[in-house]
Specification:
By secondary structure, the protein is of the alpha/beta class. The protein contains ten helices and 16 strands. The longest helix has 21 residues. It comes from Ornithinimicrobium faecis. This is Amidohydrolase.
Length: about 400
Amino acid sequence: MTSSPTPDPTLVARARAWRHHLHAHPETAFEEHQTAAYVAAVLEDQGYAVVPGIGGTGIVASLTRGTSDRAVGLRSDMDALPIQEVAGRQHGSVNAGVMHACGHDGHLAMVLGAAAVLAEQDGLDGTVRLILQPAEEPGRGARAMLDDGLLERFPLDVLYGLHNLPGLPAGHLHVRAGGIMASEDNFTIVVHGRGGHAARPEAVVDPLVVGAEIVLALQTVVARNVDPVSPAVVSCTGFETDGARNAIPSTVRISGDTRSFHPQVQELLEARIRALAAGIASAHGASVEVTYTHEFAPTINDPEVTSRAVAAARAALGPARVEANCAPIMPSEDFGVFAHHVPACFALLGNGTEPGHGGTPLHSADYEFNDDILAAGIAFFVQAVRNELSST
């Protein structure tokens, strides 16, 4: 049978129950054993062929209809965060110090709901693949699945994903062609000076002063080195010393991260951080060690796939709830690694604007995914697959 894009209320209630179970049993990156087993059981009951253990705890579930060799993927993340949840929820985390503070439980529930709808529908010609990824939060799970032969074992022609976003109206979908979420690079700058007694600053090379100058100088990188039309962020997030109250330390450790959308900007940020740190340290007779690592790739949406995603979203949600050219945002997503290998589109689904009902920021101890948007996510995923694999 062919159904309307709007999910049946009974299915939405099932998705809510799945979400609450997953919320109560969170697991951190590459530890999603119970999560994977639970999700696999649900999908096997729906008739999907489930292969566990992809990239560690990842899952691929497939359902084939008709004779086409075309394959469409729906991706969800599975891991939770090492955060102690605020108490008081009926379905609150039973694992101390771990909670679904980013809504991955909701993403899973929406994919499971879409899978249930698609398993009951006629008119599909091809394969639906559900890519259930571990370790999104540290940005390691997508690469682990790819290194485990994901695309060779389970070919994909196109991949869709989404993330809930507090601050957007509930059930509104925002998307754009090109860069939608930024890369994340991490840096550490260790300043080596000469420590000594706080009463004799003339006898030391003070790494605190050097470090402070470096932190201030890094604030000029985006303002004076990056093209103003290319979004970029440089943030220093840590400043540590080995000193005592009455002693000037020997070392200072500065940590931080950068965000951008283009490889050329990433290279520029790294080069300027290294040059400024080395130059300032040398001017004071100190030395530095700079470590710069690439943690998350930018999430770049394929223009053609994005156009099809917009059409699916408008059909499923109504044109008034779809923004087809939203502004990019600076947080990062491990989906970006997949999007470098498969034509893909990643969307943002509004979680709500009111604190306590979808508007609480991600990664907060009192955050919760808004169950009221489950139907919207399910409808979007179903319509996207139907548009890709329609046999008519």
